[in-house]
Amino acid sequence: MKAGSTASAMDMMRQCTHWSQQLFDANPVPMIIYDQGSLKVLKFNDSAAKHYGYSASEWANMTVTDLYLQQDIPAIRQEASVARGDDFHHAGTWRQQTKDRSQLDVDVFQCLIDFNEKMPCSQYSTTFRHYAAPCRISTRLRGSCV
Questions:
Q1: Tell me: the pLDDT tens digits for 66-80?
Q2: What is the DSSP pairing of strand 89-97 with strand 102-115?
Q3: CATH code of the domain in which 21 resides
Q4: Where does the pLDDT of residue 140 fall: very low under 50, low under 70, confident under 90, or very high at 90 and above?
Q5: Can you give the three-state secondary structure of 21-57, one letter per residue?
Q6: How many domains does the chain divide into?
């Protein structure tokens, strides 16, 4: 392989990483990356912060189960920890809640990614079905493309 082609491939990889980061950050759909073992939130986009109402410091101490209604947590722990291989799939319609305890009915779409090339993580995005009244009671991509 020629030195020029190696440099060109590296430039393309950097550009891919940059574009993927922009797609994640600027996406109007709430997106969250979490560790599949601990379910700890590793990264979230601005849309997730806005829709759920949590600050960056609050997200840093959260797991994805913090977004779900208490009675749904056992089922979401099971669903969130299951490896699905290379597919981007519909992980179900779930009841979630915002910081102010407003209930959301959301469709969750999930895929496996390699985050920082160190751990298998899941990325998911949500599509809101509708906002309910407040209640009182949560494809394998190679490389560092997110």
A1: 999 999 999 988 887
A2: antiparallel
A3: 3.30.450.20
A4: very low
A5: HHHHHHCCCCEEEEECCCCEEEEECHHHHHHHCCCHH
A6: 1
Q: Which residue has the higher pLDDT, 86 or 113?
A: 113
Among residues 139, 134, 143, 120, which one has the least CA distance to residue 21?
143
- Domain residues for 16? 3-134
Centre a 10 Å sphere on the Cβ of residue 61 and count the other Cβ atoms it contains. Answer: 10
CA 135, CA 70: separation in Å to the nearest integer?
A: 12
Q: Is residue 145 part of a domain?
A: no
Is 140 inside a domain boundary? no
CB atoms near residue 99 (< 10 Å): 12
Tell me whether residue 139 is in a domain. no
- pTM across the whole model: 0.71
pLDDT > 70 fraction of the chain, expressed in percent and rounded: 68
